[in-house]
Amino acid sequence: MLLTPDNKLKKLIVIGDRVLIRPSKADERTQTGLYLPPGVHEREKVQQGQVIKTGPGYVIPMPVENEPWQNEEEHVKYVPLQAREGDLAIFLLSGATEIMYQGERYYIVPQSAILMLEREDEL
């Protein structure tokens, strides 16, 4: 499969309650005017960026019943995450893991480290 700008992240699978975020530039402002002033980055260790991919969510534990009539396949169920692709996320750097992929910088962030989301569509 040839990697193009459109499909270069398709091979990445985000696990569990993690979110893949492309960081914004320090002075980048959203359409609604939301941005983090430069001083906040140093003092509070907070970053903002666009949500690129999300994991499936929190796993719901399955009951530990082994009945002979049950199907052998286990179907895993998840509680979905609040973050969606395209959201602007403001998150704590202390909970994030910085990675480089295809020459670009990204953060892998657990949902618990996300402080706020801005979404373009109605909630």
Question: How would you describe the overall organization of this protein?
Answer:
- With 123 residues, the protein is mainly beta.
- The protein has a domain at 18-61 and 76-117: GroES chaperonin (10 Kd Chaperonin, Protein Cpn10, Chain O, Roll), CATH 2.30.33.40.
- 6% of the residues lie in helices and 35% in strands.
- The protein is built from one helix and eight strands; from the N terminus they run βαβββββββ.
- It has a six-stranded antiparallel β-sheet with strand order 6-7-1-2-5-8.
- The protein starts with 17 loop residues before the first strand and ends in a 5-residue tail after the last strand.
Q: Estimate percent helicity.
A: under 10%
Question: What's the gyration radius in Å?
Answer: 18 Å
- Helix/strand-derived category reads mainly beta
Unreliable segments of 5+ consecutive residues: none
CATH superfamily placement of the domain at 18-61 and 76-117: GroES chaperonin
N to C succession of SSEs:
EHEEEEEEE
Annotation, overall tally of beta strands = 8
Largest sheet composition: 6 strands, antiparallel
CATH class of the domain at 18-61 and 76-117: Mainly Beta
Strand content bin: 25-35%
CATH architectural name of the domain at 18-61 and 76-117: Roll
With strands numbered from the N-terminus, the spatial order across the biggest sheet is: 6-7-1-2-5-8
